[in-house]
Specification:
This protein is α/β, with parallel strands linked by helices and about 350 residues long. The protein has helices spanning about 5-15, 20-30, 35-40, 45-65, 80, 115-130, 140-150, 175-185, 200-210, 225-235, 255-260, 270-275, 295-305, 315-320, 325-335; strands spanning about 65-70, 90-95, 105-110, 135, 155-160, 185-190, 215-220, 240, 265, 340, 350.
Length: about 350
């Protein structure tokens, strides 16, 4: 059953001039959102109009299968409870789990390159193996790849919308939206049918930061929204990690500026996990069951070395103690099986 406090929080948020910070101050000073609402000296007519509108909104949300949560709700995300002024009320589909406290936002450009796609897949795969929840914004580009990679490898992911939760943007991510909502969580701080604008996305970016322990920026141009998410994270006292790009790439100008400003440059997931005090030992284990009888002994040997971080072909040959042609043919077969990927002329990594 919906908490009365959600109703009163929504009423407070609909008072002109009251933002999240002011609402939270009023609730703190009055003990509850209900007391804060009743303490306001607004006219009865205005209060009745707001109350009736909020009741209609809540009824519609529940009819559509969405939930609402506020700081007084047991379902309010733990990470957001440290910054409730960012979004005193959130709408959701799916549910939060206790493991979502260990979450990381993955953000970047909507016009990603092949490099950006590969890096996103590599980092997200490593992070979800360590049970890190991936938070992103469901938009084209880095967001989409981050969500899809987390789902592909059985990890948890949270989509934060720049629109009302009843508005799916972009429309081609409708299937992704519903897949995330089925087992993970889709959330928004906006009224149900709010359309996205240039003003809603920056507000959304602050919520992404609040729901995450830290931020990872991958491919951000000079005026990317990802840079704003990074700023919010820094304002909240959180770490910002950045993937470097090619120095001539306009897609990485913003990333390089963040690094110059003190953000931490990272080149592998373990660096983030160790910095956050999370176990990175699971990354040393292949996603492939090495006891799988469908694998040859040579394939198991190569996969074991790749899981230890060995990438270069000559090093694989030396460590495996196998002939060059055997290693080459084994790598080719593993690539056909979708277990490894070639990263250059002589380097491979696990998929």
């Amino acid at each position: 059953m919906l908490s009365d406090e959600v109703f009163y929080y929504l009423c407070l948020l609909r008072i002109n001039g009251l933002g999240g910070c002011r609402v939270m101050d009023l609730v703190k000073n009055n003990g509850t959102a209900r007391n804060a609402w009743e303490s306001l000296q607004s006219s009865t007519t205005i209060k009745d109009e707001i109350s009736n509108g909020v009741r209609r909104e809540i009824d519609k949300a529940q009819d559509l299968g969405f939930w609402l949560s506020c700081p007084a709700s047991y379902s309010f995300p733990l990470n957001l409870s440290y910054f409730p002024q960012v979004a005193p009320v959130i709408y959701g589909k799916g549910e939060f789990h206790i493991v979502d406290e260990q979450s990381l936002a993955v953000v970047g450009t909507r016009r990603l390159s092949d490099y950006g796609k590969e890096v996103t897949e590599f980092f997200v795969q490593g992070l979800i193996m360590a049970k890190v929840t991936i938070v992103s914004g469901l938009m084209r580009g880095i967001d989409t790849i981050a969500h899809r990679t987390a789902l592909k490898f059985g990890g948890r992911t949270i989509a934060v919308l720049g629109s009302g939760i009843n508005v799916i943007v972009p429309p081609e991510n409708s299937d992704l939206y519903h897949e995330i909502a089925k087992n993970d969580a889709v959330v928004s701080q906006f009224s149900l049918d709010t359309q996205p604008t240039k003003f809603t996305f920056p507000i959304r970016d602050e919520l992404i930061a609040a729901l995450s322990r830290a931020i990872l920026v991958i491919e951000a141009p000079e005026k990317s929204g990802a840079l704003l998410t990074a700023k919010f994270a820094l304002d909240q006292g959180k770490e910002v990690y950045v993937i470097p790009g090619e120095i001539f790439s306009q897609q990485s100008v913003g990333c390089h500026e963040l690094i110059k400003s003190g953000a931490r440059l990272v080149t592998k997931p373990e660096e983030i996990l160790e910095d956050l005090g999370l176990s990175s030992s699971v990354i040393s284990k292949s996603l492939v069951d090495l006891d799988n009888t469908d694998l040859t002994s040579e394939e198991k040997a190569i996969l074991s070395l790749l899981s230890e971080g060995v990438k270069e072909t000559n090093e694989l040959i030396r460590r495996a103690g196998l002939a060059t042609n055997i290693v080459s043919s084994t790598l080719a077969m593993l690539e056909i099986k979708g277990l490894v990927k070639q990263m250059g002329s002589s380097e491979y990594r696990l998929l």
